[in-house]
Amino acid sequence: QKEVEQNSGPLSVPEGAIASLNCTYSDRGSQSFFWYRQYSGKSPELIMSIYSNGDKEDGRFTAQLNKASQYVSLLIRDSQPSDSATYLCAMANQAGTALIFGKGTTLSVSS
Amino acid sequence: GAGVSQTPSNKVTEKGKYVELRCDPISGHTALYWYRQSLGQGPEFLIYFQGTGAADDSGLPNDRFFAVRPEGSVSTLKIQRTERGDSAVYLCASSLGRGQNTEAFFGQGTRLTVV
Q: Could you tell me what percent of chain A has a pLDDT over 70?
């Protein structure tokens, strides 16, 4: 069973802090990973994709991938109350036909 | 259109009835996906279309679920003899092509409630 594991949280951070969201996966054959943000009652919104080992930065967001450890993370710098949401980690299956999602981590940023 | 469009936004149906959920993907996107999301869970894959054909239907839970995409654009997810356990948000996503590196974008979902 190919799985993506995330701590459900909630993860609480003060405004301006760095939020660190983590994800592990079981399928060594997967090459592509995605972070989606989902506000309550809304659909998932793609915020980052990462395919290679190392870091990928986009504004306040940095995705990190370590294929040897089967670990993906998302760092949010200067966290804002508007970042409060559930963050879903997903990996593409080897055929590239589906995304396998974790259950999501709920982030709460307090002002 | 600008984004993935799903209709209806909400659907309430009685147990045993038939329902159809519609998805209009982003213009030019050849790949289309259906997912189902229950409360507190991540989206669960149902089916993937590349063009008109269902290239991967391994996520369909049973033969009550069926999806079509006859002209390679709009897709319809069909659920026969609905059960209360089918209640969930049904999400449609589309992407430019296929392959692991393809980024998928979701519609706003259809919330299905079976009473």
A: 98
